[in-house]
Fold these 3 entries.
Entry 1:
Amino acid sequence: GRGKEEKESRSAVLLEKLHAKYIASRPWQETFKLVRQAMVSQATVSSLSAMTDRLESIARQNMLGSHLSPSGTECYITSDMFYVEVQLDNGGQLVDVKVAHQGENPTSCLELIQHLREKNFDEFSKHLKGLVELYKLPGDNKLKTKMYIALQSLELDLTKMMHMYRLATSANTLETLLHGSVGLLSARSGGHLVSLHCYLSPYDLLEERTCAPLNLTDNNVPRSLGVSVSVTIEGTSAVYKLPIAPLITGSHPVDNKGTPSFSTVTNSNCVDLPACFFLKLNRPMPFSVAFIQRMGNATSIPVFESPPTLSPLYQLIVQSELRLQEDGSVTPPCPHNMTFYSVLPGQLHCYFLNGDAPVQDGQSLQGAIVSKIPFRHPAQVPLLLDIVRHQAAYNSLISSCVKRTSVDEDGAGLLQFEVCPLTDSSFSVSFQHPVNESLVCVVMDVIDSRQVSCKLYKGPSDALICTDDFITKVVHRCMSIPVTMRAIRRKAETIQADTPALSLIAQTVEIMVKNNLPPSGSPTYNMASCDGPNPMGLPGLTGGNTPTGGGPPGGPNFAGPITSLLPRCHSSTNTTLSRMKTISTVSFSLWM
């Protein structure tokens, strides 16, 4: 018709102008890009027919059916299991968007309304794709409907669990996200599944460009921020008994955290289905083997249907962090020497991540990338989220060393650090004493996502650095190894400046040790001087000066010479830790 001719004419004129302006000096690919951009800007979707044409085209791209109402103002995008109804006025302007699943009344979807009002067809198409994915389930339509009802029942229980937690604890948005039984729940909307936000690092709470604190509310947490999981149902080779009705009975919690009581699983509220619920991580995440086993134990369902390929956990954490920094889907290669640099105010750090160090039975700490976690009951979600949070906190600390910074390795003032795993939840950071020339280390034990226990180990004659409590407070505030190491060094410098008699104190401590008196001051390698149990399994000193193994069953058990008290520096460490001197002869002689 006439409209089509006008459109073709405008396009021809546009092409001529572009040709005259750019063809002489621009390569063909760049010209082609300009043509596409210009064509898109010219082809604004404004009329009713243009809008319905575009909607039907998007439906075809997603392998969905479509048809118009007799008036031409309603466009229906359809499948066997759901349909989307787009209501327009005679001028092609949006009136409403509704989604209906099989057996349900259509309900307005605010997200889809917003996308189409803004002519954001790509996001609208992603929602359609999400709806299609939701029903990629085994069996006929009747079986798929049962699976959808099971998912709905789970969603209702999880929503109630969040509300009961908040009612019992008066938690705000951030507290609900970090500590809530099911995190911060965002309801299913269009093709977006229910999501549970469960972990943010302190740096996630800062605006990327300005570093201003984010003011989080229930409705403005970006889906990509921090760690979150979406809740879905997928077909499985095994059959599981899944609820087809909400299982929470009443609204009276069983404790002061809002934990609900659940109905007993029976044949009337659950059915056998060739499917399982899944928590799908917003980004695939490295987990240690022990943490993967803990998740399987919590649900009695293995996380992986077949055994996964294992890799050194630190290598996986590094690759995951580099991928996040580069905002790409391609896994970047690990630097062959696992060495990274951090530029901080007044300090330049070099970190060697010694992920190949043997942790148990001569093996390095192993892990695998987890993208989804199976479960079958709403009561299992809090247990799984706590494990996810725990691993996320550990990963957050290790990845804080990972930067794409390049510096001159021979530059003056470069401070060397080695990060070495001890167990699946603890590690040591070794460095040269800020005042003496000995080697000291900080052991960080990630107890859970809310607690990191820190202990400083040094020779008894070494100068005071700082207290364990100081280190712990810094870690809790920043969850960053480089920031913590900078704070330790600055604190040591402050103590040195405020203590003119420091050398005298050091001599006094040395004399006390030689006389077999317990040294005072900062904690030392002597675990006997530390309060409480030995959570790290580090060796203590018993019966004089003989180092002994220690620690809980399954933890590392070191025994032998005093060098076992120090992080295991392998031959590969020498290049990156060339400036770090070994512990002084004086310190060694105290135990030999």
Note: The radius of gyration is 30 Å.
Entry 2:
Amino acid sequence: MDFLQFLLFFFFFFLTFISFCSSLNSDGISLLALKAAVSVDPTDSLANWVDSDAAPCHWAGISCNSEQLVTGIFLPNKSLTGYIPSELGAITSLRHLSLAGNNFSKPIPDRLFNAAGLLSVDLSHNSLTGPMPENVNSLGSLKLLDLSSNLLNGSLPESVINLTRFAGTLNLSHNRFTGEIPASYGRFPATVSLDLGYNNLTGKIPEVSYLINQGPTMFAGNPFLCGFPLQTQCSDPEAQNLNVLSDPNRPKDPGSFTGLSGKEKSGLGRVTVPLVAGVLVVIGVIISVSVWVYRKKWRFSGGKIGEKGKLEKGEVGEEEKVEGQDGKFVVMDEGFGLELEDLLRASAYVVGKGSNGIVYKVVVGRWAGMAAGAVVAVRRLSDGEGKWKVKEFEAEVQTIWKVKHSNIVRLRAYYYSDDEKLLVSDFISNGSLYSALHDKDGIGNPVLPLSWASRLKIAQGTARGLAHIHECSPRKYVHGSLRSSRILLNADLEPFISGFGINRLMPLVGSKNGSQKHNVAPNAPFSGQKVTQKCDVYSFGIVLMEVLTGRVPDSGDSNDGKGLEGVVRKAFRERRMLSEIIDPKLLEEVQAKKQVVAAFHIALNCTELDPEARPKMRMVSESLDRIKLH
């Protein structure tokens, strides 16, 4: 028996010994392999990962389903150093893996993708090496694969095209991939967001379906790539399609903040193109573009931001402004190190779309001295017919910025021009409350199971944030469109209210004829009337019912054709069993019955038909805070 065989024998003997001597289930043992592979844990993120537990479901960064099987590993930005063990692939119920922003090295183990039910894998901003595993095509339900900002090398694997149901984000940028882009990548559906930027790719970009419909951002930073949509012509005259730039049906660049790539010295002028020219579009929606778009792009390629080419102090507070030829970029917080150039060079991915605009996740790479890539959210407000002065827009943005609370998404900067209005805020990483409650994986389980303790914490935090909006000014601010999709969750399931102030801005950027309507509470009986704080209270009551029942608030078959408020109110009026309306996943927590009933009564008070009968949000918040976990 050679030394390697001896080590393998000893390792499996050790695992077997642990399984007999410990009550920990197999998923927990696999996770202990990750802990053993971590050599540096400066924040003690894995301190409570111990083999004396029966299951790892209460360990930091771990989420489980009702059967105590691990469904999520969330350990981003923990400064962990080590490698990723192949044992994680043995967690068959694993749906989400996020190890981004650490210092994991060595190759990605092939067996990691044995967890075939994975929906999202984020290993970005590490130091992973080697090729991308070919067996990635085994992840039939995959929606997000982010391997950006590593040291991966080798050729681009053709196996990813076999992910026939893939319709999300595939980010391979900022690595060391070499060779040509496989022509098979042209078969990706339009709903895929692909980023191959900043590698060492070579050759001509294949003029195939999906690839020819992309903008230059997807290929930027590969100096030896040529062909459309890059400006670099291929050395072989026959290899370049001379009719490309005059094609009036060439689609725009979807979901990107960067413009035409070029030499580094003139990069800034060119990256400003789509941001100020308004060519950000929803991923998967193909929009025609003409030569006018290219002319509009070149109109902004002056190679400098403004007259002085540097940041200037603003007139209000501690703002910093950059005024370009057609717009102004304003940083609201002095400690916020993002500059216009950082934003424009960033990769952007559509994460939401509504009647008031598109929301992008923007990865701005190295920023303000941070080693890992910083991420912000950028909301592009919908264009309208009205033309408003910058001072009017700035006054409203100032109002939004001044409303600061630990449960409200913080506005950091904005961009204003005649063509574009952008709001830059903190990016909250764990999705929305709506997704946590209603999104299911491939076998029908919630992608982010929420215990009663988590739901109560989310409700309490949301109530505090909304109460602060109502009380922070004598002008009696309102949110105006609170719903579960606008309550965002971080890795610790702390809630953040997003979208505050959007209804204040939409009349400014929308048409003045009133076509831009406020989005009042779901099923609100007073839609069409002026939005008041009592409407916010109603909206919160609906969200609270959604949290308690697990049902979508809209009318439909799932609610017997009635609004959620009517279903809950009828159940209490007829004194039905609590099990008929409560989320079945909460029934297992029998000790929470009295607490759940108390929360239902608060929700019913919030949704009274008479607005004057509804309590103030401060009272709602205090009532929820009185519900204590035992």
Note: The CA atoms of residues 249 and 288 lie 5 Å apart.
Entry 3:
Amino acid sequence: MEVNCDCLFVLGTLFATSLCMAVIYLAHRLGAIYQLFHKVEAQSPRHGGEIVADVLRAHNVQFIFTLVGGHISPILVACEKLGLRVVDTRHEATAVFAADAVARLSGTVGVAAVTAGPGLTNTVTAIKNAQMAESPLLLIGGAAATLLQGRGALQDIDQLSLFKPLCKFNASVRTVRDIAPVLRRALAAAQSGTPGPVFVEFPIDILYPYHVVQKELSPKGAPKGVMGRIINWYLQNHLNNLFAGAWEQRDLSPIPIHIPQASAEQVQQCVELLSRARAPIILLGSQATLPPTSAAELRKTLEALAIPCFLGGMARGMLGKDSLLHIRQNRRDALKNADLVILAGTVCDFRLSYGRVFNRRSKIIAVNRDQSQLLKNSDMFWKPSIAIQGDAGTFLTKLSEGLKNYSCPREWTEGLKEGDIKKEQANREKSNEKTEHHLNPLKVLHHVDNLMSDNSIIVADGGDFVGSAAYILRPRGPLCWLDPGAFGTLGVGGGFALGAKLCRPESEVWIIYGDGSLGYSIAEFDTFTRHKTPVIALVGNDACWSQISREQVPMLGSNVACGLSYNDYHVVAEGFGGKGFLLKREDEDSMDAIIQAAQDKSKKGNAALINVLIGKTNFRDGSISV
């Protein structure tokens, strides 16, 4: 009998302990324990949007791009009150593209805020582009109230699952007190390692004041009796947990970021390898332009190394427009003859024929922050002699310091430059050929290149016409060229130009559009007008998706879906408040005057669009023909 009593006592104790632990766990999950020690200021008019703005300001964010929605209004209002410039666009993708441009040009995190559901789904392409371009970007998204998620609320979808493959960091803020720590972690993640986009979701009840949320949570027609009291307690507890400790002082400062670096031993190995090279080449990619090495410092480093460079992506213009070290043409031939190649933030993807362009005997030094990008396709067509997971800009600086007595053979550099000049001269001669109809696009681009100001920023958004522009227009300096990157996204033009003009209001910002890509963001001329960002758009109008048509017609015998019209895009721009110009064959002799008139309008504060009626071009493997 005593044994049974003892067993019952033990079982009872275990049951009571388990029950107690379950109650404590439930109380913790419901925030009841936290509320015992942290105050709920029910009378406070403050709201969560103010904390978001405080964190952004503490991280030196100057601009927040948006398309307004009720889910995120408190954030936008608070940012405006703190002096952050809120810039609203006509499409959510444009807001993200603008934030991307700010990130690339400023070295900080670009920020876009959009409303829930379709507001967020509209950003997917732009976020994927930022991921592939390795741009540090914070996407803020609205969301349904915490208690209504998954219950059919307006614009309620599983947003975190949508962005998980696209962003380095994803989080949904569940209480007001979590806003600052979650945002700080997100902003640090965006810049650490290989930069990229991050996503933070803000349910609507996290952002509005207590009394507003309380009114929405108050039960209407709740059951009476015990069930009614349980429901009322649960809702009140949930409300209190949202705001418990909300306005306590918290750290808003940036969290230190981690950037991988080459070791001293790796740098020394590269110094020894390069010191024996007779025909070296540097392929500089966008990643080399990232902080902590400034563009000015990187340019000095490249000039000190005095090694011929091919510049791609954001690295275009790194050496100015007339550098003897910058080689623009005949890259394939140069790589076949090189005995050493430095891939500084450059990836062996389709742009380098997956590595097939390299000479099998060449030594290859690859430097990249991302391990997967560092060794991409190295199992197929190429093998790095030295592979370094680290920051390319810092690596080049250390390499230069270790090569004080090295001198790249002059005949190698001069030979590459001579080939460069010959190819460009041949392309210039093609610009003088008469097209069957309309203007020779190469001639137009040469005239624009001659007239661009020395502080110009070029935004590339298109296929055929932009492909020609990439070989003719010369970026004036570091960080003066913006293109989508490896994803090849059409539609970046309006957003990129908006971000660029806000970052550098003194610069002349040019968007080089194809007539196909223009359709994605021509409505942003309204944004340019309202926000006083007078950019200049040059539209190569050949009434066709020419890059597709050129291969589709001979291969498949049809031009279906490739034809467009010679539309009056200059008139559309004027409808949105800009200034439009039409440039056609009859205006060939006054081409410079029309281009300069557009520049003058821009200087006076008007966004301008030059609609250029052009003939067909051919851009393939670096060759340009009319």
Note: Residues 2-29 form the longest helix (28 residues).
